[in-house]
Design goal:
Chain lengths: ~325, ~350
């Protein structure tokens, strides 16, 4: 019996599922990470993921290609990032309240438009989502082929975005500006760089990534849009950013760890039967997020200027 | 990028501060009317239907006030916490915690005459809401774990717990398959205050709670401490205010009032616990608190106003075929426009020239 529970870890299906479940979290965590590195907490994440899920799906349902769907989601995410930036960066309003407002606006607008466009659908209509794309040769490797190289293109995009964001933050002048905007904005301004502009671009880019994470749910993981399907993933991503100590590579690790536990519990549940009610398994990610934050809290060093609005010509 | 900066106003116009929230509401309705146009109907007619739906008859008014009851309480929960810069976004979970306490104690376990039973239910409901928040405020104070995220995450945990209890051990066998809890005993049910409507005693209790919180905030040392901690925690500490203890008291009060909202819904409106007890009352409280500029008396007004939008939107949706989610859009827009108005009240936007 115990042996069966350990055996789960040695099935390729478990690892493939882990990567699949991690993808929306990877996009969302990277998006939040960019915002926070620049000094802006983006609580709009939950709503932006939700409207991203709706827009990506709806674009494809209305006849657009799958990749256009991703772009549409990213574009709408960017718009909500712009709204967030106008309030939190340019007007220096409370980042907490701005984020809650953006989440409320994005999710309610998403639901409103869905109902407006498809008023009478009772069973959620479906699209043809992304299909698995076997990487030639690599996908034939026993075990690893199935675990790593038989995913949808959207999944490969998630993994690639980790590398791209890692490179952007650590190896480009713009990445350096983002980090300085979050650590020491006065110094950045002294260099003649517009802090407000840098922060706004970071929030817009980050929000676009969040929306793409939402779109993964409706275009790769599932094939339909449901109300409330984001189901707290945005808030979990915020906890993951803290757990990852604001580093993209650790964000990947954290997302995989979470997804792995999720994939494992589904399989363990099937083995164990209905001994433990399913609601307790669904609670796990939320408990784990809180525990992860407690573990990270002791050694955590927040970006120094996080939550502090920057005003030109004002000393801090 | 446009070249501008914000310059702090030397003194804040009281008239501007008073009218700004109304401006925010008007702008929200203007922006939302674009969405109604997209739905292909007339905004004016839709808003008329909304108004009639909320205030057009005795029954409509009673329904609006009944809906306002939990929203006023969650609004107070948000206001007192935000005043101390303690970001409790967990009113939704605390509301359900209060509802769970009512179901545990109020469906037969404890039997008291109604003049004791009703206060007892409010007490246990408030305690449940406060106690749910207590570990999170301790984590914030002693481990620096951000309360925004932990309170949001806890909402999901509590709702799942309610789902488990209602589908499992607490499911009412008489409910014909619907997941709902056992009925609150007659002595615990909040009496109607307007015959043949759903308006119940909870509304009066929410008004009294608002007045009590206003008295605490404006007339007591505790209120002064809460405001001081919110404005500048380190200065408060140096002035001898026990910052951590004050924030714990704020958290207990805040969670307690959200828990009371769970009591009004379980023992007042429905009579039993359901999975859809709260369609986001916890989050609506944030909007209500912002709209009232965190003023407890103002929350009575803004809470009733928001409730009228929700109630009226149902009628408007039926008559005009505009999705009810319009109400949520209007509320969300209100939050953002209020935020904008706060900036305009405090700052002057100066374009162009650099400061000399």
């Amino acid at each position: 019996m115990i042996f069966d529970f350990i055996e789960i870890l040695f099935t390729a299906g478990f690892w493939a599922a882990t990567i699949r479940i991690a993808c929306p979290l990877i996009f969302a965590t990277l998006g939040e990470l960019i915002c926070e590195r620049s000094g802006v907490l983006n609580l709009g994440i939950e709503g932006i993921m939700s409207i991203g899920a709706m827009v990506g799906w709806m674009a494809v349902y209305q006849g657009a290609g799958l990749y256009s769907g991703i772009l549409a989601a990213a574009f709408v995410g960017a718009i909500f990032g712009l709204i967030h930036a106008i309030f939190s960066v340019y007007l220096g309003a409370s980042q907490h309240v701005t984020g809650i407002g953006v989440t409320m606006l994005a999710s309610s607008l998403g639901f409103f438009s869905f109902k407006l466009i498809l008023p009478y659908s009772t069973t959620p209509p479906k699209i043809e989502p992304f299909q698995p794309l076997d990487i030639p040769l690599l996908s034939d490797i026993p075990f690893f082929g199935e675990a790593l190289f038989q995913h949808t293109p959207f999944t490969y995009l998630a993994l690639a975005s980790v590398i791209i964001i890692f490179w952007l933050i650590n190896s480009t002048p713009f990445g350096l500006s983002i980090k300085m905007a979050g650590e020491n904005p006065m110094a950045l301004e002294a260099q003649g760089i517009d802090v407000l502009f840098v922060r706004s671009v970071a929030v817009i880019l980050g929000s676009a990534l969040m929306a793409v994470g939402g779109a993964y749910l409706t275009m790769s993981a599932f094939d339909a849009f449901y109300f409330g399907m984001v189901n707290g993933r945005g808030w979990i991503a915020i906890a993951l950013v803290i757990f990852a100590t604001w580093k993209p590579e650790r964000a990947l690790l954290g997302a995989l760890l979470f997804a792995g536990l999720d994939a494992y519990q589904v399989r363990a549940q099937q083995l164990a039967g209905a001994v433990v009610p399913y609601q307790f398994f669904l609670m796990m990610p939320f408990f784990l997020s809180i525990i992860a934050m407690i573990i990270a809290a002791k050694k955590t060093r927040y970006p120094k200027a996080l939550l502090i609005p920057f005003r030109r010509g004002e000393r801090h | 990028m446009a070249d501008f900066r914000l310059e702090q106003r030397d003194f804040i116009s009281r008239r501007l501060a008073f009218f700004a929230p109304m401006g925010a509401v008007i702008f929200s309705f203007l922006v939302a009317s674009v969405l109604i146009l997209l739905a292909g109907v007339s905004p004016l007619e839709s808003y008329y239907k909304l108004f009639i739906g909320a205030f057009g008859s005795k029954n409509a008014i009673a329904e609006t006030l009944a809906r306002a009851t939990p929203i006023i309480l969650t609004g107070l929960a948000a206001a007192i916490a935000f005043r101390a810069k303690f970001w409790n976004i967990g009113a939704e979970g605390q509301l359900y915690a209060g509802a769970l306490a009512v179901t545990f104690f109020g469906t037969g376990l404890i039997q008291l005459p109604n003049f004791l039973m009703i206060p007892f239910l409010f007490l246990v409901g408030a305690l449940a809401g406060g106690l749910l928040l207590l570990p999170l405020v301790l984590l914030r104070n002693y481990y620096k774990v951000d309360e925004v995220v932990t309170t949001l995450l806890t909402n999901f945990i509590v709702v799942l717990l309610v789902g488990y209890l209602l589908e499992g051990p607490w499911k009412d066998p008489m409910s014909l398959g619907w997941p709902q809890g056992a009925s609150v005993i007659d002595e615990g049910v909040l009496p109607q205050i307007l015959p043949r409507t759903r308006l119940h005693l909870g509304f009066i209790i929410s008004i009294f709670t608002a007045i009590t919180i206003w008295l605490i905030m404006s007339r007591t040392i505790l209120g002064y401490k809460i405001k001081a901690v919110g404005i500048n925690p380190s200065a408060s500490h140096h002035a001898g205010i026990p910052v951590i203890r004050t924030i714990i008291i704020v958290a207990l009060l805040s969670g307690g009032m959200a828990g009371m909202a769970g009591v009004t819904e379980t023992a007042g409106l429905k009579g039993y616990l359901t999975l859809d007890l709260s369609p986001g009352f916890g989050y609506a409280g944030i909007a209500v608190a912002m709209l009232a500029n965190l003023n407890p008396i103002g929350i009575i007004v803004s809470g009733t106003f928001l409730a009228s939008i929700y109630v009226g939107a149902d009628a408007m949706s039926r008559a005009m075929n505009v999705p009810t989610y319009l109400a949520d859009v209007i509320v969300a827009l209100t939050v953002l426009f209020v935020l904008l108005s706060i900036v305009i009240i405090q700052y002057r936007i100066v374009f162009g020239e650099k400061r000399s």
